[in-house]
Structures are given as C-alpha cells and as structure tokens.
Design brief:
With 453 residues, the chain is α+β, with helices and mostly antiparallel strands. Helices cover 50% and strands 16% of the residues. It folds into three domains: 3-116, Trigger factor ribosome-binding domain (Alpha-Beta Plaits), CATH 3.30.70.1050; 156-260, Chitinase A, domain 3 (Roll); 279-448, Orthogonal Bundle (Trigger factor, domain 2), CATH 1.10.3120. The strands form three sheets. Strands 6, 7, 8, 9 and 10 form a five-stranded antiparallel β-sheet that branches.
Length: 453
C-alpha cells in the first residue's frame, strides 16, 4: 500500500518520501504488457497474436519503469490534492537510485521529492507608504513649443534651391573619402536625411548657400554633437569609436527641402482636434494645454506607480532560498553553474516577490477582468491605432476585427495582464495619500528612465 511521509529539511523546505509497494504498480504493468501484445507489429506474428512473454523480453524493462513512475506520480498528485500545501511550482525529484528498479525482482520502492512552501504575506507597508506625485504644470512656453512641433509635423515639404535656414531638410549621400574628398576605392555610399539644425553650430556657415549636387568634406567628430553622431554612425553601419569618428566623408546634397509650416487656422485646429469645432487660436491653445496637462499627469502617475511597486517589493518575505535555487537549476534549458545561479538569484527573487504580492492583492480584493472589459479595451486600442487613418464612422469592420482578436489566446493573455495590472495600480492608489511636489518635465523624464515593473 502506497504512503507519503513528510519531513522538514530547511526554511519552508520539506521532503516528501513516496513509498510504493508491488501491488501499487504490478497489476497495471501486467495489463500494459497484455495491451501492448495486442497492438504490436512484429514480423513473423499476426497482429494481436504476439506472446506476452516475448513482449516482456523485448519491451518489459521500459514498460515496467514507466508503470512504477506513473504510480509514484499518481500518489504525489493525490497527496497534493488532499493536503493542499501552498507550494512553489511542482515537487522536485531528489537523487534516487533508479538502477534498483528491476522487472525480474519487483519490490517496494522509495522516491524522495522536495517542495518549497510559500510564505505568509502581509502587506502592512502600504499603510505607512508616502509616495510622491511629481506634478508638472504646463506653461505657455510648453504650449508654444508644442505648437511649433505641430505646425512643422503637419506642414508640407517643398523643394528649395539652396540651404538657407536650420529648418532645411537635406537628403545627402555619405561616401568615405580622403581629406581632399576623393572617394576611397571599395567603399559604399549611404543615403541619409538630416535636418540642418542637427549639425554643429560652427559648421552651419559651410552649409548655407549650398545647392543641389554640391558637396562638403567632413569628419563626423567635427560636425555633429554626441547624440547625433551616434545615430549617424549607426546609420552608416560603423562602430562607435575614435577611428570611425575620424574618417573623412564626402557628403553630397541630393535634395533640399523646407517644411512650409501650417497656418494657425480652423482647418489646422480641426486636424489636431477633430470634431471639437475650435475656431480661435486662444481656444486652440487652451485645448492643447489641457491635452498636455493630461499627458504629464499620466506620466507622473506612472512614476508614482513605480514608487508603489518598489515600496511593495520591500515587504520582508521569508523564502525557501535553497529550494528556489535548486528549482532555477532544474528548470533551466541549459545547465547553470552555482555561480550563475547566485548571480541571477536576486532578480529572480524580485520577480517572484512581485508575483506573490500582486497575486495576493488581486485575490484579496477580487480584482478581475470581464470579457466585456477585454473586448472594450481591444476595441479602444484598435480604434486608436486606426484613428490616424481616418476610416470614417463605419464600425462594423471594427467589431469583426475584435471578434478575430478575441480568438487569439496570446492577444487575450497580453490584454488581460495589462488591464489587470492597471486595476491593481488603481487599487493601490486608493490605499495611499501621495504628497504632491512640483516638478519640471526634465526631472520627471530622468526619473522615468529608472522606471521598471
């Protein structure tokens, strides 16, 4: 008769020993041999007429082994269903000598497994949490800058004869050359498109007045700031190093463009805010200011969510470290060294802690996502995506598109997680009273670079 015994071997770390006797697996082994002999195709025998003894000789050892393992797995599953221990993952098999499993000498066997138990979780840290809401207040200057961006973005590109202003757009061809501008043999030429204002200030006079097909000889280190230099190097397929930056290039102008900025009139206002019927610049500025304020408030909220995430991660949790390290090794596709496990363990634990804590909050507060919420979220996402394409008011295609997406498990899973995470953070907001501090866009953006969860 099978039995399971449990002993503690460490912090939240137990050993389960599954004992099985001959009567737990031998009858099913004999049945498996019979079934096999009915199905086996062996030359010289009619199907279903192969003697059981022959099957036993040929395949017995492997069938015997399978039946023993099946009996063990059945026992362990029954134990977990009955006792319901709160465990991480599945029980891990411990070292046991499989060579003792011998078909010609059926016996009682012991199989040891280890389990890691989940800790008790208390989320008291929230009651003492003092997150900060970094408030960016949109200024008239920020509205001016946004209008400048929009009139250029929606403006019309016109061809120009000569380079005259920082706003000119140049299509150019870079070809590696010598210091005099003679192209080097075996070098490729690369096309690019660059705004004149991206060149270094002291280089601009060399560009002004240039016409189509004119060229200049340059070294990247002398004509671009660090950020622009990086993306030009990457466009040219070059490594970021001194030798790349010191190469000479012959840069030939193949096209000169200038964006004709949009006028601030009703047509433009309607393009930015469709259907809002904005007819004066003052009302347009007000709508833009409100829009920008919402964007900055959303960014501030997202940064505050990041604080809450880190506050919760500081919840002290007692974890079965030894078991979890074994589990990491056991579940890895390739063998991990003890050093690799130690190095990866802290970030593994952070993810695990977040999963345990967020799962508890979700469970305790019955946070869930309904089919309708999933559907609406997908609809909104697709609507948002296609809004730029001006497809009019026909919503029938949208519904059938959503129907198709609702059949895609991957899509459902990703939307479900996103909505649930939003609900979780909205709930967390209700549990704290943030302190508001004024902030600049630059300060907030710097904070967001450290943002992750």
């Amino acid at each position: 008769m099978a039995s399971v015994t449990k002993e503690n071997i460490g912090n939240l770390h137990d050993k389960l020993t599954i004992k099985i006797s001959k009567e737990d697996y031998y009858p099913s082994f004999e049945k498996a041999i019979k079934d096999y002999s009915k199905k086996a195709n062996i030359p010289g025998f009619r199907k279903g007429m192969v003697p059981a003894g022959m099957i036993k000789k040929m395949y017995g050892a492997s069938i015997f082994h399978d039946e023993v393992i099946k009996a063990v797995e059945k026992e362990i599953q029954e134990y977990l269903n009955k006792e319901k221990p709160e465990i991480f993952a599945q029980p891990l098999p411990m070292e046991s000598d499989m060579r003792n499993i011998d078909m010609s000498n059926p016996a009682d066997y012991d199989f040891p497994f280890e389990i890691g138990l989940k800790p008790e979780i208390s989320i008291d840290v929230l009651s003492k949490a003092k997150p900060v809401f970094y408030k960016v207040t949109v200024t008239e200057k920020m509205v001016d800058e946004e209008i400048e961006k929009l009139v250029v973005k929606y403006g019309e590109m016109k061809d120009a004869e000569t380079v005259t202003v920082p706003e000119n757009v140049l299509n150019v061809t870079f070809q590696e050359s010598d210091a005099q501008g003679n192209p080097l043999p075996e070098t490729v030429s690369k096309d690019n498109s660059i705004l004149v204002k991206y060149f270094a200030e002291d280089f601009l006079p060399q560009l002004y007045g240039k016409k189509l097909n004119d060229h200049v000889v340059l070294q990247l280190k002398n004509v671009f700031g660090e950020k622009e230099r990086e993306w030009i190097l990457s466009d040219l397929g070059l490594e970021k190093n001194n030798s790349s930056e010191e190469k000479y290039f012959r840069m030939t102008i193949t096209k000169i463009g200038l964006v004709e900025k949009k006028e601030l009139n009703e047509t433009f206002f309607d393009q930015i805010f469709p259907g809002k019927e904005i007819n004066t610049e003052d009302v347009f500025r007000e709508a833009l200011k409100k829009d920008l304020q919402q964007q900055w408030d959303a960014a501030s909220k997202s940064q505050m969510h990041d604080q809450l995430y880190h506050i919760l991660l500081e919840t002290p949790l007692n974890l079965p470290d030894e078991f979890l390290k074994r589990w990491m090794t056991f579940n890895s596709k390739k063998e991990k060294t003890p050093e690799e496990v130690e190095a990866e363990y802290p970030s593994f634990v952070n993810q695990l802690k977040w999963t345990l804590i967020s799962d508890k909050i979700i469970r305790d507060n019955n946070l869930d996502v309904s089919d309708e919420e999933l559907r609406n979220s997908m609809k909104e996402e697709i609507g948002h995506y296609f809004a730029q394409m001006n497809l009019g008011q026909d919503n029938e295609w949208l519904d059938s598109y959503v129907d198709r997406m609702m059949k895609d498990e991957k899509q459902i899973d990703s939307s479900y997680r996103k909505i649930l995470a939003d609900k979780l953070f909205k709930f967390l907001e209700t549990q704290v009273t943030p302190e508001e501090k004024p902030s600049t866009p630059e300060e907030l953006l710097t904070m967001q670079h450290h943002h992750h969860h």
